[in-house]
Amino acid sequence: MENIRIIDTTADNILDYGVCGYKSLKRPGYPEKIEWLRARFAEGLKIKTLYSGKDGTQGMIEYIPGELCWRPVDALGYMFIHCIFCGFKKEYKNKGYGSKLLNECLRDAQAANKHGVAVVTRKSSFMAGNDIFLKHGFEVVDSAPPDFDLLVKKFDPQAPSPAFKPDMEQRLAQYADGLTIIRADQCPYTVKNVTEISQTAEKTFGIKPHIIDLKTSEEAQNSPCPFGTFCMTHNGEIIAHHPISNGRFKNIMGKLAK
Known about the structure:
The chain is α+β, with helices and mostly antiparallel strands. The protein folds into two domains: 4-164, 3-Layer(aba) Sandwich (Aminopeptidase), CATH 3.40.630; 168-257, Glutaredoxin (3-Layer(aba) Sandwich), CATH 3.40.30.10. Helix content is 29%, strand content 29%. The protein contains eight helices and 13 strands. It has helices at residues 14-17, 30-41, 97-111, 131-135, 168-172, 189-205, 217-221, 246-257, and strands at residues 4-9, 46-52, 56-65, 73-74, 79-86, 116-122, 139-144, 148-154, 163-164, 179-184, 210-214, 230-234, 237-240. The strands form three sheets. A seven-stranded mixed beta sheet has the order 1-2-3-5-6-8-7, with helices on one face. A four-stranded mixed beta sheet has the order 11-10-12-13. A two-stranded antiparallel sheet has the order 4-9. The N and C termini lie far apart (52 Å).
C-alpha cells in the first residue's frame, strides 16, 4: 500500500484528519469528541492517525497517562490505550498497520519513562481483542465480567501491575432503580444513540432514563462497568456494557418485559 503515514494528531490538525471515523462537524458526537480531545491533549493524551494518501484516514490509536485513563483501572505510572483500530476499508486490514500504531505508543511510553503500557480488551464487540497485544509481548493481569481483560507490557518487571478497580459491583448498587445511562464524550457514537434511546425509553416503555455525563477521568474510573465511558443499567443490572443502537435497546427492553 503506497503513501501510508502515521500522523501525530493534535488540536491544530485534528479537523484535517477526523477521529473515530468522523470528520463532519455536523455529525452528532464529532464536535463533542473534538472538545473532549482538546481538554485531554493538555493532560498528555495522544492520538496517532493512520493516513492513506489515496483513501484518507484508515485507523488510529488513542492513549493517555494511566492515572488519567477513562476506564475503571488503577494504572499509575503506565501509559494507557483507550482504543486502537485499523482499516475502514478491508484492504488496510491484516497488513501490519495496527502493529505500527501500537509501536508508536510503546515508543512514547518508553520515552516518558513509564512502567509500561496497559489496555482493556474484550472477547466480544466494541473493543480490540487480545491478539495484537499478546503478539507484542503483553500479558493478561486482570479480568472483569462479562468478557473484559486488562493487559500490560512492562518495561520495569518490578513495577506493580495495573488492576481493575475492586469495587465496581458495590458502585452498581447505587443504580438499583429505573434506567440509567452513563456516557462520556470520549466515545462519539453515544451522542446520537443516547438521544434516540432516551426518546424510545419514554415513548415506548414509559421510562424516563437518568443520564449521567462523565466529565472527568476520575468519574470514569468510578464507573460500575469495565468499559468506563458507557454503561446502561436497569433496576440494578447492567444491560449494556458498551454503546448500543436504538434498535438493540428496543430488543433488550422487549426481552426484559416478557
